[in-house]
Amino acid sequence: MGKVAVAAAAVGAAAACAVAAIVVRQRMKSAGRWAKAAAMVKELEEKCATPSGKLRHVADAMAVEMHAGLASEGGSKLKMIISYVDNLPTGDEEGMFYALDLGGTNFRVLRVRLGGREGQVVKQEFVEVAIPPHLMVGSSSELFDYIASELAKFVATEDEDLRPPPGRQRELGFTFSFPVRQTSISSGTLIKWTKGFSIEDTVGQDVVSALTSAFERQGLDMHVSALVNDTIGTLAGGRYGDKDVVAAVILGTGTNAAYVEQANAIPKWLGPPPKSGEMVINMEWGNFRSSHLPTTEFDEALDIESLNPGEQIFEKMISGMYLGDIVRRVLLKMANEASLFGDSVPPKLEIPFILRTPNMSAMHHDSSSDLRIVGATLKDILGITNTSLKTRKLVIGVCDVVARRGARLAAAGVVGILKKIGRDSSPKDGGEVPRTVVAMDGGLFEHYTLFRSCFEDTLKELLPEDLSSSVVVIQANDGSGLGAALLAASYSHYLHSDS
What is the pLDDT of residues 204-217, one digit of tens each? Predict the structure, then answer.
């Protein structure tokens, strides 16, 4: 071999060694990134841990706060608002009633025809309308005028034979899923907006009056017979079909719970005694907080940057509006500190709420061998391309930690309610264990299958073995809307009229 050939061979070998060294360094760098990211997921899992003992402390704290909220006004973070619903549906209701369900980024209007004990729900029709984002931060008149105009369009599709006789108004149940201080079954003043709404001119005002004024401006002849929130509507709808329903929980964009309280447990300061032996209490449990809640730096940052810092802490840990953004915040830290998605941080990952809980759910449920749904979601939503299978698995790991924590905390909250009403243990006299039904509604519970399964499993885990089979969770699809129509029937303006 000549000198030139030897030199060329040497250069080639050196180049090959250099390339090999670069590949090794890249692999080591990649492995280092992945190891650090994996350690961060492990740390997150530890900070979000919800062992049974901790959850029982959360349940105990929930029950204590319920007692405190009933004992004195302002005595608890839970509002424990009297709903004035002491006449839950029985199944005997008849007639045609409307419902308006406002509680998130959409609202729904329904028309329900009730046929009494024999016919039950004869016919149910509805339309769902998206709320333009600018109306969520505008004025109340703009928001309610928009709602009234859409309701008027729906009323116009009414069959002639369903129209009320002359001199009789259509009746509507209004599901308004924001904190309201009820003053009667058909009136209440707004305490505050939540779920991304910020319309200050209605705070402290009667929401039924605001809606009725919008009806008048739109020329819509409609009487609001019942004002409820989505949770109470869900409870009413559940009770209509099952007499053993004692509580209702919404797990959707936001979260709340309501339950049936016995009359002798309701103090006089809350309002007049119920006509029946029970009254539905609106807990506003999204505002629950406790030192036992496993909060993290991501929860704290989300809270500080929210529209209502220091409030709705429980809601921010378990509801659909926030879970996706908690995942985004974790991934952002992993991108910054472990370079999980490359040397630079993907710009879209820094945009609050760009990763929604439905996106999180889609990734969490991905069962494909290459986790292609995870890859497609990262690419389409966050602009992150060319992710490895290891990286995608880590993303699913983050989704799992955040979802499990939320589901298990929600279940602990339900156990707290059962503890308050004495349904968390077997009867002391050894009598028959009563059947206890909790009606559930909300897109998070309905569509996020892994979240729902974890919730149901945790509920069984926290209850005594001899009691868990008697506590039943039912899905109340659109319970809030149907429930509002049913309560409009229960409290009909014409209930005792001869006409």
Answer: 899 999 999 999 99
